[in-house]
Specification:
By secondary structure, this protein is an alpha+beta fold. A hairpin with a 4-residue loop joins strand 7 and strand 8. It is built from five helices and nine strands.
Length: 226
């Protein structure tokens, strides 16, 4: 019954120099059930009103060369009037009882003057956070067209997973065949480039906007000059 409020709250633009708004349609909970890792949702409510939400999910990552299941905590959103009411502190306390003693991580945009201090500042009842890895998101234009003569193929599922799991960076996510179509595009959406010896590049154009969409709400600071 809270899905409509969760959907509206999740679409609230995130503050920062790179301002993003995320939407999930037709509803937040239905979208989470169909795409992405299987999430649990925690919300703060006052009467019938949802004040804040976050989600958390288990995911296998590469940690020090081993595959380890780690909780990822995400989707932090709150109404403005929830500020200074211990909503986040209560949320951390509730989360600690739900994470089953396993490690957990969140990702924060570097140099964000709002989210950085919010999560890193020591507060009573908050967990002590420490950096574990620096992750980089690449944004690049698509140029040119694929040509048959360079060896474009649709990779087999096993070869595709092997290629996707070849990332040796710390906290690289581990992809299993059952994840394709949920947390990654379906196998038929991928195209791979071969050089006669093996798969050398692979990618997919995936349009999940029926259930999830990212909107750029505005640019400031460094991003405004790009």
């Amino acid at each position: 019954k809270d899905d409509a409020q969760l959907t509206e709250l999740f679409a609230k633009p995130m503050p920062g120099d790179l301002s993003l708004s995320f939407t999930r349609t037709p509803g937040y909970l239905e979208s989470c059930a169909r795409f992405g890792p299987r999430r649990r949702v925690l919300s703060a409510v006052e009467g019938d009103e949802v004040l804040a939400l976050c989600s958390f999910f288990l995911w296998p990552y590469s940690v020090a060369g081993k595959r380890v299941e780690v909780w990822t905590v995400a989707d932090f959103r709150a109404l403005d009037r929830a500020a200074h009411r211990s909503v986040t502190g209560r949320g951390w306390k509730a989360l600690r009882g739900l994470l089953e003693g396993r490690p957990a991580m969140i990702s924060v945009v570097d140099d964000n003057p709002i989210s950085g201090p919010l999560f890193a500042k020591r507060r009573r009842g908050w967990p002590e956070l420490r950096p574990v890895a620096r992750l980089q998101t690449l944004m690049f234009p698509l140029l040119g067209e694929y040509q048959d003569e360079i060896g474009v193929v649709c990779p087999a599922v096993e070869r595709l997973c092997e290629f996707l799991n070849g990332d040796e960076r710390e906290l690289a996510p581990h992809i299993l065949p059952g994840h394709l179509g949920r947390v990654a595009p379906a196998p038929e959406d991928f195209l791979g480039v071969t050089d006669g010896a093996g798969l050398r590049a692979c990618g997919a154009l995936w349009d999940p906007c029926r259930f999830r969409q990212t909107r750029v709400a505005g640019y400031r600071g460094f991003y405004a000059s790009l």
